[in-house]
Amino acid sequence: MGFPHTTGDRPPEQQADTSETTIEQLRAELEQLRDRLRTTAAIEQAKGALAERLRCGVDAAYTHLLQLARDSGISPLDAAALLFTTEARDGESPPAPRSPADDAGQAASPAADAGQDAPPAAGPRPSTAVPAGRSPADPRVCPRPAPDDLLEQFEHAQRLGNLGCGTWEPATGASHWSEQVYVIFGRDPEEGPLPLDRLAAVVVPEDVPLTAHLVSTLVDGREPVDSEIHIRRDGETRELRLIGEPVVDAAGRPMAVRCVYQDVTGWRRGERALTASRRQLEQLRVDEERRQAIDMQRSILPLPERVIGKPGLRAAIRYLPAGILSRVGGDWYETSAIDGEGVFLAIGDVSGHGRTAAAAMARLRNGLSGLAFTGAPPDRLLSWLNRLTLHWPTSLTATALAGRFDPETRTLTWAQGGHFPPVLIRDGKATTLDPPDGMLLGAVDDAEFGVATTSLESGDLLLLYTDGLIERRDRDLQVGQDLLLRVAETAGSNDPETVLDRVLSAFGAPNPNDDTCVVAIQIV
Known about the structure:
Blueprint: E1 5-6, H1 12-54, H2 58-72, H3 76-84, H4 104-108, H5 147-161, E2 163-168, E3 175-177, H6 179-185, H7 208-219, E4 225-233, E5 236-248, E6 254-263, H8 265-300, E7 308-310, E8 313-320, E9 330-338, E10 342-350, H9 354-372, H10 378-390, E11 398-406, E12 411-417, E13 423-426, E14 429-432, E15 452-455, E16 461-465, H11 477-489, H12 496-507, E17 516-523
Antiparallel strand pairs: 1-3, 2-3, 2-6, 4-5, 5-6, 7-8, 8-17, 9-10, 10-11, 11-12, 12-15, 13-14, 13-16, 16-17
């Protein structure tokens, strides 16, 4: 135990004055530390109660507490007091309200390797001197410790919090450090304290400009600073919090600089580990949701392994999940032969992604497939499907194209609700069919849908597709449509499998943000 190391030659009288000043400073700082301990105790009590209430770990509880404080615009201490005032002990009132800025240090800078929360920057605190009219023997009054005890307690507090303090006088170059600062910097006490204007010599190169700016701000007496820098110590990089304030005379001229140094390496490592764990858990959740959605899609939309034959046509299908894991969508298709009614063809896309979209897709597809057996025309089918979309429990929109192919007349009667019209490939030329009127499903209750009739020939090939094929965030929609027509014309074949392979190859990797469904239908 000893007084902070001091540089500069001074007469004995000044050294005595300095010692007395140091003792008074240590007393004030000890009072601040005691108040911080009380604050920390309140936060810890709130964390424990919240962890029990939410049935989670204390770290997760503290995260909830900080989020509540942030969202409410108050400090974590006030949030704790508001949440658990009824749980306070008899005769103990909640701490006085603070602004978020007052407690920013407490929320962001806990003790480093000790793994404890660092207390917030403290302002003036009430004295612990014995009030008038009370006996020193009053059990509610703690007598002021002796100076030596104060110094010992202060040194313990610095060691436990892995922090220390120091001062520097720019005019004389005199400086002093408390003993813990030497430990933080890994510096031999025999070498004396490192002057603040030489701090840049021990920081990593990337932090030199920041460190120079912080020192300049303090020396010029402009304002306090509170920042984190990285220093090199014993061959490793340590993360250091620097809190400093300038000391000015009555005329506002800077006289000295007071600093607090805290090694927050352990805390930051813990934060990064916690962040990595959260990301890992979130990725696991996303992966599981994607797996469930894909399983649902595969059970509803089994992909044929080869070209399927229907009366008067052959069809091939491709379904590509979105490139981003969490973007599984609600694309669907249907090709089914109906006795006496030819072949029912449909394709659609439900808004949204994940299990919700997959579930909505299943409802709409199954509903439309069942309605198709009534023999109703495609425009009426879409009108019914629109009503079904509107009665989904949550807000939902969708696009769809539905048609009936008559194999005897080779006629396609079709309607669309906000969906891309088919592409017709005939004699090496690709064109987009003119769509009948029809709007997005789920937009309005009384939507009306037109109907179109297209005469087809043997050898014709139709492409039905969802927007995931041609739409990209980095490309205009018209560019995607033009590319599809160009590739369809140069496919050099009317075999549905071959055409699909060349189309998907031309568009490259799966759409990262949306599923893609393409159906190629060859008229025989």
